Amino acid sequence: MSAPIVHGGGITAAAATFGGRPEDWLDLSTGINPCPVALPDIPARAWHRLPDRHLIDEARRAARDHYRSGEILPLPVPGTQSVIQLLPRLVEADRLVGGTDNSVAVTDNRVAVTDNRVAVTDERIAVISPTYGEYARAFASAGFAVDAVDDIAAIGAGHRLAVVVNPNNPDGLIWPAETLIALHDRMKAADGLLVVDEAFGDTDPALSLASRAPQLSNLVIFRSFGKFFGLAGLRLGFAIARSDILARFDDWLGPWAVSGPALSIADSLLRSDVSPIRGRINERCAGLHGVLTGAGLQLSGGTALFTLVADSRAGDIYTHLCRHHILVRKFDYAPEWLRFGLPPDPAADRRLGEALQRFER
C-alpha cells in the first residue's frame, strides 16, 4: 500500500492544529471556483430512481457539445480521480519482484520504491512533473516504474504511457496543442498512450485537445466538472477517448457510477452560457493578484483558478496564515512554493491582505 498524498482542502486537520471552527477558516488551498453556480432544478425522479440510460445519454451529449469533442461522447465518471486509478489497467506491465510487505512511498509528486524492489519490465510510465501526485502514485502502486520528467522531449519510445497536465498544477505551465499532438504521434508509433489532464482547462477552452480527439486515437483526455462550476462535492468528471477505451472505463467503474442528480446537473449546466462564470473567476483572480503583489509576493505561475507564489519564507508565511485561520497549499518537494486559491469575495481579499501585512519580514 502506498502512502497517501496530502492534498489541499484539509480544513479539519488545520483547525485541529491551529484552532478555530472549520467553518470559520478561509480555505485558499484548492483550485476550485469559490463562487459556486446556482444549482438548476433537479427532477424528483433523479433522486428517486437509479440513473436511467437516458440521463447518461443526455449528459454525454451535453458534454460533447460543451467540450466540442465531435463524434466522441465523453464518459461521465465519479470524479476524474476514479479513472486516474484505472489507468494502470490500460497498459500491460509485469509485477515488481518482492513480497506483499514492500511499499511505495509517494510524497506529493516524488516517487520512491522502497525495500530494494526491482522492476522486471522495460516498460515505463512518464509523468511531466512536478504535477498532481496521484498519477505517479497510481502507477507506482500498480508496480510500474514511473519517470518524473520535466520536458516532453524526455519522453521516449520506452514509455508505454505519458501523462501531461495542461494547464499544469501547480505551476500553470501550458503546452501548445501542436506540441501535444506531436507527442501523441510519437506515443502512438511506439504503441503507447498519451493522457492529457485538462482539469483546469475550462477557463481557457482554446487550450483543449477535445476537438482534435476524434483524430487522435491514442489520446485520453480528462476533464473536471466541479472545479470550474464550484461543485467539487458533486464528484463528477468526464473522460474523452476512443470508444473502446471509454467502454473499458465504463465496465471497470460498474453500474450507476455517477448519480442521477449529478447527471441532471451536468446536463443543465453544460448547456448553459458559462461566460459569466469565466468572468467571475477572472475577476476573483485579479483580486487575488492585487492582494499578493500588494504584499510584496512574487507570482511565479498559476491558472485563473489558483496562483503560485515563490518565496524563501514560504514555510513561515504558511504557518502565519494558519494562525489567522487561512489555509493555503504548501509543497514538501518545493518548500519555497505556496499555492493560493481564489478568495470568494472582496471581503476575503481584505482578510488575506490584512493577514499578509501582519507577517513579520
Describe the structure.
The protein is an alpha/beta fold and 361 residues long. It contains 12 helices and 15 strands. The strands form 4 sheets. Strands 2-10-9-8-7-5-6 form a 7-stranded mixed sheet. The protein has a 4-stranded antiparallel sheet with strand order 11-12-15-14. Strands 1-13 form a two-stranded parallel ribbon. Strand 11 and strand 12 form a beta hairpin. It starts with 10 loop residues before the first helix and ends with a helix. About 8% of the residues have low confidence.
Structural descriptors:
single chain, alpha/beta, Aspartate Aminotransferase, domain 1, 2 domains, 12 helices, globular
Major sheet attributes: 7 strands, mixed
- Given this structure, which CATH class of the largest domain is correct? Alpha Beta
Strand fraction equals 15-25%
Which regions contain 5 or more consecutive residues with pLDDT less than 50? Answer: 93-121
Rounded to the nearest angstrom, the distance between the terminal CA atoms is 42 Å
Helicity, as a percent range:
25-40%
Radius of gyration: 21 Å
Spell out the CATH superfamily of the largest domain.
Type I PLP-dependent aspartate aminotransferase-like (Major domain)
The CATH topology label of the largest domain is Aspartate Aminotransferase, domain 2
Number of strands: 15
Structural class from helices and strands? alpha/beta
What is the domain tally? Answer: 2
Number of helical stretches of at least 4 residues: 12
Overall pLDDT score? 91
- Shape verdict: globular
**Order of helices and strands, N to C?**
HEHHEHEEEHEEHEEHEHHHEEHEEEH
